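Field reference: sequence -> structure
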Amino acid sequence: GGVEHQPWTSGNTAPRIMQTVDPSENDAGWTVMFNSVPAGSDSSIPMEGLLLEQDTANYLRFDVFSDGSSYYGFAAGFTNGPDTPHVYISTPIPIPGPPVWLCVTRQGTQWRYYYSLDGQSVFTVTTLDRALTLHRVGVYAGNAGNSPQAFSCRVNYFQGALPAKAYLSNPADKATDVARPVDFSWQPSAGAVLYRLLVATDSTFAGVALDTTTTETLFASGVPQ
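Structure field:
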């Protein structure tokens, strides 16, 4: 407490745990589960998130912070030093309490930042375009503000460099009374080369109507009524 620790215009002073990654790996995804949420005030702004570095002067930060009245999903990029950060998003997001999952996926220069409150349903914070020769990825925490207080960040797990989860586009998640046959589509999953589509007539998947694999993100099932 009493000292700011954050990746911002004064440089990256945030405590962080980083791992090296192969810069030739163009598609990837990273998830961190926090057992803490930052509860701040108008003078103390705690934060927790993911840091992705090309080097000490070129990096991206994706995090959640609090000003005491709201939680915010935040993303910013730094090019050739911390002097002029580019803020991609700073938007209120509803977080009732821990746990909270923060996830970042990359496909080429395209990045997606999203969060989850249950580890299953996800909400996109933003997507952005940024070329970055990635060398390090990790988890960080910080505090900022006019009178920054100490903040304890609790990390349950960090998972990196695995194919990201594919998210259903059509039909909508938990949709009912969907006309059949159903044409399924889903968002591309960074790092995935094959998708498995499993359709059943009950929630336990005892009555399987379709079990197939595809390299596409669209499947006309033809599942009968």
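Note: The radius of gyration is 20 Å.
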